[in-house]
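Case study.
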Amino acid sequence: MDHFLITYAPFIVVILSIIAAFWSGLKDDRVNR
Amino acid sequence: MDLAIVGISVLWLFLFGYIIIASIDFGAGFFSAYSELANTKHILHHIIQRYLSPVWEVTNVFLVFFFVGMVGFFPSAAFYYGTILLVPVSISNVLLAIRGSYYAFQTYGVKDSKIYTFLYGVAGLLIPASLSIVLTISEGGFVEMVDGNPVLLYEKLFFSPLTWSIVILSVVSVLYISATFLTAYADIAKDFDARRLLRKYALAWSGPTILSATLIIWQLRQHNFSHFEKIMDIWWIFALSGVFFVITVALLWMKKYYSLAFWSLIIQFSLAFFGYGISHYPYLLYPYLTIYDGFTNDAMATALIIAFIAGFALLIPSIWLLARLFLFNKSYVRGEKGKGGY
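After joint prediction, the assembly is written out as follows.
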C-alpha cells in the first residue's frame, strides 16, 4: 500500500495541475468568444 | 577528455538543439489547432501563421544528425537500439510523416481544412511523447537478452510509472517552451492580444512542467537508484535550472522583458538536459552498454567530430539566416508588405 502511494500519489498532483492548466486556458478562451 | 566524451557531448548538443526548435514548432502547431476549436483563431491566427511554415521541417536535420552520429560513434548502440526501437521509433516516423504532409496540405492546399489542422496539431504532441520512450528504455529494466539478442519488454514498458512521467514531461514542456517563445514573438510583433493570451498559456503550463520534471526524478529513485544518486551528486545543476525557471515565470508574471524570459527558459532547459546527460554517464543503456563499449576507432571518431563541427558551422548560420529573414524580421513579423522580408 505504501509503495503504491509513493509511486502513484505524485501522478495525481501532476494530472491535477494539467487539468488546472487546461481549465485556466479554456476559461480565458470563453471570455474571448 | 577522451574522444567518447567529446562524441557524446556533440551529439547531446545536437539533440538539445532539436528539442528546443522542434518544441516551438510542435507547440505552435498545437496552439494553432486548439485556437480553431476554442474560437480564438482571430487572436492567434496571425502570429502563428507568421511563425509556422514548412521551412521549419529543417529542424529534422538536427534529429538526423543525432541518429547518424550515434551509429557512427557508437556502432554497438545500433545493435542494441536498432532492434528494440524498431516499433517505438517507427511510430514516431509515421507521426512525423503525417504531420509533415498535413502541414504542406494545410499551407499550400486550396481549402482551409480543420481536419488537416487538427491532425498536425495532435501529431505534434504525440511525436515528442513517442520519441521520449527512448529515454525511458535507456534507464534499464525494459530490455532482456535472449540468445544474445536484445528484446524489448513491451508490457513492462507500457505499465511503468517512469514511462508515463517522461511522456507527461515531454508533452507539457513542448507546450511551455512553445507558449513562452510565442509570447516573446508576439511581443516583438507588437501583437498585444496574442501576447496576452499566449502569456496566459505559458504561465498555465509552467506548473505542470516543473511538477512533472520533479516527478521523473522521484520515479527514477524507484526505478534506477544508482542514476538517482548520480543526479543527487550534481544537485546544484538542477537547483540552478530551478532558479532560471523561477526567473522565467517571474518575468512572464510581471509582463516584462519577454525575450529575456525566453532566454532564461533556454538556460533552464540546457542545465536540466546536460545535468541529466552527465548523471547518465557512462551508460547509453543500463546495464548493457556504456559509451566505451564498442566505441568506434580513433580515426573514424576524429573524422566524425570534424564533420559534425563543420555540419554545425553550416547549420547554425542557415538557421540564423532563416530567423533573421523571416522570424525576427520585424516588418515580416508585423505583416508589412514591401519593407523587406519578402
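Observations recorded in class. Chain A touches chain B through 19 residues (CB under 8 Å). Residues 16 and 22 of chain A are 10 Å apart (CA to CA). We will return to this complex in the next lecture.
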